[in-house]
Fold this sequence. Notes:
38% of the residues lie in helices and 24% in strands. The chain is built from nine helices and 16 strands. The strands form four sheets. The protein has a seven-stranded mixed sheet, sandwiched between helices. Strands 1-7-8-9 form a four-stranded antiparallel sheet. The protein has a three-stranded antiparallel sheet with strand order 2-5-6. The two termini are 36 Å apart. It is an alpha+beta fold. It folds into three domains: 65 residues; 96 residues, no CATH class; 157 residues, 3-Layer(aba) Sandwich (Aminopeptidase), CATH 3.40.630.30.
Amino acid sequence: MQAIVTWLVNARSWLSPVLFVASAIALLTAWYCKPVPASAIVEGECDCNYIGPLETTIGRRGVGGGTMGAGDGIGIIAPGANSGSVYGIFAKVLRLSEEDFDSLRKAGAPYKVGVHDRTIVTLVGASGRGIAYQDYAERVLRLRNETLAAGLGMLVLASGLFFLRAPPPAPIRKASAADFAAILTIINDAAQAYKGVIPDDRWHEPYMPAEELQREIAAGVAFWVALEEGRIVGVMGIQDKGDVTLVRHAYVASGKQRSGVGTKLLRHLQNLTRKPVLIGTWAAAQWAIDFYVRNGFIVVSHAEKEELLRKYWSIPARQVETSVVLRKAA
Ligand SMILES: CC(C)(COP(=O)(O)OP(=O)(O)OC[C@H]1O[C@@H](n2cnc3c(N)ncnc32)[C@H](O)[C@@H]1OP(=O)(O)O)[C@@H](O)C(=O)NCCC(=O)NCCS
């Protein structure tokens, strides 16, 4: 859904005008789409020997007293006085189906043909069945209503797109003591992603008890929070370790992930330090590794990881074993 909205926001500059023009064309077409009066239809009779789709370009010929236009389309071929055959194309508004053709053929010759503006609008066979004026008029009105609905639909869509705005970028600020509960909630909500993925002996619920978060803050992890409409949607910590800076506890609310919040927080934290940045995460959390790699980090070698985790982190040996460390690519 988020991806669709982003696409629409990006495409709105050209999509909205295109839809406005398309809707204007459809509305104008609907406006002019009305049955011609019966008096404007020239009637004639013919002994058609073919009724169906035309497969070739037809020439200019007279049918039933009218003059036919040239073009490919559905039509009739009837014996003609001069050339042996005369051709006609049905008006597009009739939108004839295979069923219609069948019924027209069954109606049998001779046919009464009604022509307007060089196209056939009515055709009634000897049995009295076929497309009489009433049927023609109903088909035109149906087409007009459909075109009108399509035009109005596109107009609504175009107007919606015109007013569509991207949600404002998530502002980022340093967390205060008042944010503690919200940070804890985001961490434990987002950490659900680890359940069944990281080793079972490393999983516990809640993933981050309040006392542990308290200890981390006391140990120097400074949290930053990303807000959307005033609510915290992502958290990330930074910890100074002398010659390096660690990025700790990166979590984005489960409903807000993959919309750029994590990237903004990470970039923000990187700008706060000139020291090399190191990040540790679970080896099994491939999505998190992908997230950091996408942001220019690389996974360090096994030997380097062992050394770095022991030097800069205070985590149990089992966690060292099941983690990876990433650093900024050179
Ligand atoms: C990892 C995390 C912090 C990233 O924040 P985010 O706001 O979701 O990330 P962004 O939107 O800035 O970047 C999205 C990219 O991260 C990666 N990514 C994030 N979540 C992913 C997921 N569930 N599956 C696969 N890739 C994912 C992808 O590379 C993604 O790019 P894509 O959507 O084009 O494929 C967040 O997804 C999260 O809280 N995950 C659960 C907890 C976690 O793993 N924390 C890491 C602790 S070190």
